[in-house]
Description:
Elements: H1 2-23, E1 40-43, E2 49-54, H2 57-63, E3 73-75, E4 82-92, E5 95-102, E6 108-110, E7 117-120, E8 130-139, E9 143-152, E10 161-168, E11 173-179, E12 192-199, E13 206-213, E14 224-230, H3 240-246, E15 257-259, E16 264-266, H4 273-278, H5 289-292, H6 304-337, H7 343-346
Antiparallel strand pairs: 1-2, 2-14, 3-8, 4-5, 5-6, 6-7, 7-12, 8-9, 9-10, 10-11, 11-14, 12-13, 15-16
Helix pairs in contact: 1-6
InterPro entries: PLXDC
Protein name: PSI domain-containing protein
Membrane topology: Single-pass type I membrane protein
Amino acid sequence: xxxxxxxxxxxxxxxxxxxxxxxxxxxxxxxxxxxxxxxxxxxxxxxxxxxxxxxxxxxxxxxxxxxxxxxxxxxxxxxxxxxxxxxxxxxxxxxxxxxxxxxxxxxxxxxxxxxxxxxxxxxxxxxxxxxxxxxxxxxxxxxxxxxxxxxxxxxxxxxxxxxxxxxxxxxxxxxxxxxxxxxxxxxxxxxxxxxxxxxxxxxxxxxxxxxxxxxxxxxxxxxxxxxxxxxxxxxxxxxxxxxxxxxxxxxxxxxxxxxxxxxxxxxxxxxxxxxxxxxxxxxxxxxxxxxxxxxxxxxxxxxxxxxxxxxxxxxxxxxxxxxxxxxxxxxxxxxxxxxxxxxxxxxx
Length: 348
């Protein structure tokens, strides 16, 4: 009975932990900091990028890079847009990037003319004497931050507008708006966001990924943070090996297919679905529920609930086996004590 009581307690603990895990499950679409008070989350039409808009000052202060040190000042009013090498390689929709073109008016874009992408936290409109003052750079092994400062008369009376763009080694790009004049950006800046042109190899077809936000519809105030989170897509794998192998061991794993005719990786349910059909990437002479009925297809081969259910089922089998084993041992011991079995017969 002691063995059974111990196993019952152990089983209850495991069930409680698994239930707690499933109740608090998060996916790659949401970082932990997005769970509290449900900040605004927006994705583009192709589900390539998630924007998390967080207006609580605690988050802006946490992710803001302190650039008060003089050594962080890179250029003053005479600064011109230029190419900067980032101290690490980061991913832009599957492409390795280490050089960026820093724009004087705010934002960055690709230094490679064959790779069309940009990240614009704010594109300032010059008005009256409200002008660019200085730009600051700060970097470490896992992030690179750029801060733009604007004001009147080259900020002689202080900075009126200050914002940062932070590039992270994991591909996340943060927009941090520390100081915004007049309450919000309406009338101060143009539209902003992140943009990438996905070109289908060997064709003139292209898709606009990323997300463009409208200033007049997005209430950006001081101490607002926007996190641009790249979503896990088959299209981010650019060769056959990564498409079929690396994608399958991603977290969470992806079920991807490679089209050798035009060199694209796709789930066959993403924005390349029509392209996949158009170029005859694969003859469909078999039944595939994920293709015939995309709305009912699961994005991933197995859900967290399925894994948990299987784990519990296996654990139950183990418990039953241990209980039967313990009962047999106890029975044999009793028989040995009463002389009903010889030691050889009672051995397990």
